[in-house]
User: Fold this.
Amino acid sequence: MKFLRDFLDRQQPRFKAGGKFEKYYALFEMIDTFLYTPGEVTKESTHVKDSLDLKRMMMTVVVALVPCIIFAMYNTGMQANLALAKLGQQAASGWRGDVLAFFSIGIDPQSFLSSLAHGALYFVPLLIVSYAVGGAWESLFALIRGHEINEGFLVTGMLFPLILPPTMPWWQAALGISFGVVVGKEVFGGVGKNFLNPALTGRAFLFFAYPAQISGDAVWIAVDGFSGATPLSVGSAGGQAAIEKAVSWTDAFLGMIPGSMGETSTLACLIGAVILIISGIASWRIMASVVIGAGCLAFLFNAVGSSTNMMFSVTPGWHFVLGGFAFGLVFMATDPVSGAMTRTGQWIYGLLIGCMVILIRVVNPAFPEGMMLAILFGNVWAPVIDHYVVKANIKRRMKRNGQ
Assistant:
């Protein structure tokens, strides 16, 4: 690829200050940085903290997302193939059926390749929409402000389709990512200045603007005429006993259930968590405190019980494997920009999210998912939490120094 590197080097003067295409430097820099490691790096030892730059950080998160992406495509396709088999259909309909037929791929639910290929025909278009529309907004704001395009959208654009149902219309996905990027990030100044997670902000917009397509009242199986209640909706009506009749805990843990494409597999999320914790990118304190907060409050509700609210009976073990709990725990709550930054603040922030998700799921079952709203609520309070933690630390030091 030396010819490509040489070509970019020859074009670079045209985009730098004084060049013919100076105002388009942000676009050139985005392409160059995406393809290659930045050529201009800090070399003085007094300025080097470690070898982790923003690009390496974002690529590590992408690697951590790979298990979720693979399972998202596989499970989406498997659920669709199972539904088609139950309906007695031998092939998928529409252009997806034509694509599968062209490559001689059937709809066998037992075939990993068949399920992966079928699911990819739902996931990949949403991924393309997310990157195309969100990237266009990022580029527009970068050009207007004269800023470089940050690698942060590489992750945001990948997270967004993972938290959508496979049946989400493309134009609604485009609206959602637009709202997330523009209102959730750019209006606050762009990367590093947003206090809300952009992907979750876009999903929240879709949740309230188009509830029929994204509410938790029905599962999302990519087959027309085939639907049913989600495990959490089943729980709100019949408690844990009803959930256990609908799905097994093992299937819920592995992700062999319908739902938002990347959120169903707790196992895939845990693999990502290991990668992020070992690399030092995600805070294990936030993950641990979310689990502690959710687990303790769920145990409390179990002990109190209720004859009118069946969700009181759902144990922590089931809460952890249903809905978007695991995905939000690993990839959303730990967002270094919108989450708490101080160590003490991370514990408080995580406990707040953990308690909030159980409160929403149990006390207000009208929103059976809960994790999305809990994390956004935590995002709002994260700056306040950090402020008072820092303020308390200053007072403690002043007292220790006799001031």
About this structure: Residues 272-400 form one domain. The first helix runs from residue 2 to 15. The chain has a mean pLDDT of 85.
